[in-house]
Design brief:
Aspartate Aminotransferase, domain 1, alpha+beta, lyase, Aspartate Aminotransferase, domain 2, 784 residues, seven-stranded mixed sheet, GrpII_AminoAcid_Decarb, 11% strand, decarboxylase
Length: 784
């Protein structure tokens, strides 16, 4: 690039390109700094300071910008850092710098240059997106173009609006029709920009019986238009979608265009599917958008260009009205908005522009084909193969039935139960979406909540692929990750109902229905002093649940446990996470119940210990004081005098027994120390109570973690396996005892396992059977 910059005759342009390259290199290299360089970076303060007296050089200013952009980078996640915008992004950024330089030209040169830039960009966009003989309005805010179009429609339909103003609107109120699937906040934005009341908006519902539930109901729209005409209102603008903001569905634009021509309504189309107009093959529903009155395009996200304005293409013959509406301007600065896009389109060329849009559509089709082969995944846009948006959702399916949102098939499900199962699947889909976003960050997935379907995951490569650099391998990895998460989702969904039943059948445990938790379930332990009617936080319960959580995590199981407030109150609960394998729910619930009970008893013992010790000390002081008074009465007053008492004790010693007190912490009682002084042994006192019984001991195989089902067979099979295992051990013992012992036992009667063998009392055989001298050795006493 340095060699190409030398060919530029204008030294200012060459210096501008060089400075931009150096500035972008400095800012992008800051993302690859090493840890030892972090200590050298400038420390920025949130509080603004005074302007320095002396000016700073460009390097220092860029270092300050770099510090403000990245901040404490080691504390930020990787996804929060800026993306590598590439060479085409540098061209778009150069356009903003060039715009400031071009504005310093004389008026005649500036007028010619801005007119050329605006004409070229408008012509290129109209040809790329098949919008013949159109005009272009460039704007920073995506919704601003539609607001200008509505203003143009008002000036076109109300001839006296310039003179009489809103008085003409009062006599015949305008109506703007929006789909129920339109982007949120669009209607309110239009009313605020146009100064219209909210009754001027009319939300058209989507299909309920036939067609997509995200497409505008054309028959109902026609009925609304007829009603407004009869009431003396003026149907003004209809906003249709070529790719809704949620799932990417396209309205029946051809039928809507006929309806708008019949009633003289301005038809405006927007949506991500308009990008497919640049491809060789376009679906008929999207191709009908080329006949509309106006459309809004967002080439910045589609092509991965930063700081590129949105474009509204429109057709109108009266330049005076477009000037009044704000769609055209005589100011050169307004025309220079197209400069970044003008530079970027020349850098990419027609083939590069089409190739980027084509690549994004291929990614979406590749994901659709991959998801069709995955069980329990339902695609919402399956009927629209040309849509560049893929929206999918995890569902639990059963053979011979349609996909349903339930884990256990039942003939009829109450609305409350169906709603609970719907919330369960929503939580699981939300968890799935977050997991996929972390595992495949280049996919650009988003999690959204739809009114009819629930929580879904959306893949829209047209809006993210060019910026994130999404490739086909990323889509394949995404499908693989979905398949790896399905066993966890299905297993968790199947164990939820069993967990609920076990908790409800266990005393002391309360099942908490939390629709936002994706795990097995939520449980709360009700201690003795728990106020069930109160929704406030419970310090005692929080302490018990904290101890319970610590003990559950010490079990080293595959389940994850966490503590948090209840869904509808501030009381603490234990949240059980996802299950990857078959879990013994009964053992899990019993472990929670017994561990919580033990934690409560230990906590209560520690809390009562201070009071018991204090009372014991007071009682000991009282008894010792009484013992001193009794000793004083027994010995007399004279023995208390120092000299006289010594003489009396010498002539007549007193045999006084040593009495003391000991406090038994186990029994919580005060006892005498007489037993200790008499027998020289410290007494055991009261026998401590037995420790609360823990969970039933369950035999596990080596390496088996808690809460796992070891065997799914019947008890007879388990018993047979145990007997066979004992027999194997006996065979090993017989082989270890030697061949002689095995020979002797082979002639004896068969004994059941565990029966002691009888001692051999038979005499030795005749001497003839014993070759040589046989010496009898008496068996030692210890071996008999």
């Amino acid at each position: 690039m340095d060699a190409s910059l030398e060919k530029i005759a204008d030294p200012t342009l060459a210096e501008m390109g060089k400075n931009l390259k150096e500035a972008m290199k400095m800012l992008e290299d800051s993302q690859r700094r090493t840890d030892d360089e972090n200590g050298k970076k400038l420390v920025s303060e949130d509080i603004p300071g005074p302007l320095p007296g002396s000016g700073q050089d460009m390097v220092s200013i860029l270092q300050l910008v770099q510090t403000l952009m990245h901040g404490e980078e080691e504390e930020e996640p990787q996804s929060a850092r800026i993306q590598d915008i590439g060479e085409q992004g540098h061209m778009a950024l150069l356009g903003h710098s060039l715009g400031a330089y071009i504005s310093t030209l004389d008026k005649e040169k500036l007028r010619k240059l801005t007119t050329r830039i605006l004409s070229d960009t408008t012509l290129w966009l109209c040809r790329i997106f098949r919008y013949e003989n159109g005009c272009a309005y460039f704007h920073e805010e995506e919704r601003e173009g539609l607001a200008k179009i509505c203003r143009l429609a008002i000036h076109s339909r109300y001839e006296d609006f310039v003179v009489d103003g809103f008085n003409v609107l009062y006599n015949k109120k305008p109506v703007i029709y929006l789909s129920a699937a339109a982007r949120p906040g669009l209607g309110q934005y239009l009313c605020n920009q146009l100064g219209l009341p909210f009754p001027c908006l009319c939300r058209v519902p989507c299909n309920t019986m036939f067609g997509s539930q995200h497409q505008m109901d054309v028959a109902f729209l026609e009925k609304l238009i007829k009603d407004d005409v009869e009431r003396g209102r003026l149907p003004l603008v209809l906003v249709a979608n070529a790719g809704t903001a949620a799932v990417g569905h396209t309205d029946k634009i051809g039928r809507l265009k006929e309806l708008c021509e019949q009633y003289g309504i301005w038809l405006h189309v927007e949506g991500v599917n308009l990008a497919t107009l640049a491809l060789g093959y376009v679906s008929s529903s999207v191709l009908a958008a080329t006949k509309c009155d106006s459309m809004t395009l967002t080439p910045g996200p589609w092509l991965g260009l930063p700081a590129v304005p949105a474009v509204t293409l429109y057709k109108h013959d009266d330049p005076a009205l477009t000037l009044v509406a704000g769609l055209t301007s005589n100011k050169p600065a307004d025309k220079l908005r197209a400069l970044p896009l003008w530079l970027s389109l020349q850098y990419l060329g027609l083939d590069g522009t089409v190739e980027r849009i084509k690549h994004a559509c291929q990614l979406s089709q590749r994901l659709q084909e991959g998801l069709k082969k995955v069980n329990h995944i339902r695609i919402l846009v399956e009927d629209e193969l040309s849509s560049p948006v893929v929206v999918f959702r995890f569902v639990q399916e059963f053979s011979g039935a349609d996909p349903v949102f339930k884990a256990v098939p039942v003939p009829s499900m109450a609305p409350a139960a169906a709603g609970r199962e719907r919330h369960s699947c929503d939580a699981l889909n939300r968890w799935l979406g977050e997991q996929l976003k972390q595992l495949v960050p280049a996919s650009g997935l988003t999690v959204m909540d739809l009114e009819a379907e629930g929580v879904c995951v959306r893949f829209s490569p047209l809006m993210t692929a060019a910026v994130l650099g999404t490739r086909g391998e990323d889509v394949d990895q995404l499908v693989t990750c979905i398949q790896s998460k399905l066993p966890v989702l299905t297993c968790t969904l199947q164990l939820r109902e069993e967990f609920k039943q076990e908790v409800e059948a266990t005393a002391g445990l309360l099942y908490v229905d939390d629709p936002n938790w994706p795990g097995i379930g939520v449980v709360r332990y009700e201690h003795a002093n728990d106020d069930k009617s109160s929704l406030k936080s419970d310090p005692e319960g929080e302490k018990i649940h904290a101890g319970l959580l610590k003990k559950l995590n010490e079990l080293e199981s595959d389940l994850t446990f966490k503590m948090g407030p209840e869904y509808k109150s501030m009381k603490s609960c234990i949240y059980i996470g996802m299950a990857s394998e078959d879990i013994d729910v009964s053992e899990l619930v019993e472990t929670i119940a017994v561990t919580a009970r033990e934690t409560e008893e230990n906590s209560r013992l520690l809390e009562n210990m201070t009071e018991v010790v204090r009372k014991g000390i007071q009682e000991a002081q009282i008894q010792l004081q009484k013992a001193n008074e009794e000793r004083l009465l027994e010995e007399g007053v004279l023995r208390q005098i120092p000299v006289v008492g010594s003489v009396l004790n010498w002539f007549s010693p007193v045999q006084a027994s040593q009495k003391g007190r000991t406090f038994n912490l186990t029994a919580g009682s005060l006892e005498s120390t007489e037993h200790t002084y008499v027998y020289k042994v410290q007494g055991t006192g009261v026998t401590p109570p037995p420790t609360p019984s823990s969970v039933r001991t369950k035999q596990r195989l080596p390496g088996q973690k808690p809460f796992k089902r070891s065997l799914r067979g019947s008890d007879a099979v388990s018993e047979t396996s145990s007997i066979s295992h004992v027999e194997d051990l006996e065979k090993v013992e017989q082989l270890a005892s030697g061949p002689e012992q095995s020979t002797l036992e082979a002639h004896g009667p068969e004994q059941p396992p565990g029966t002691p063998r009888p001692q051999k009392t038979e005499a030795l055989p005749a001497r003839a059977q014993c070759p040589g001298d046989c010496t009898q050795v008496e068996e030692p006493e210890s071996l008999r």
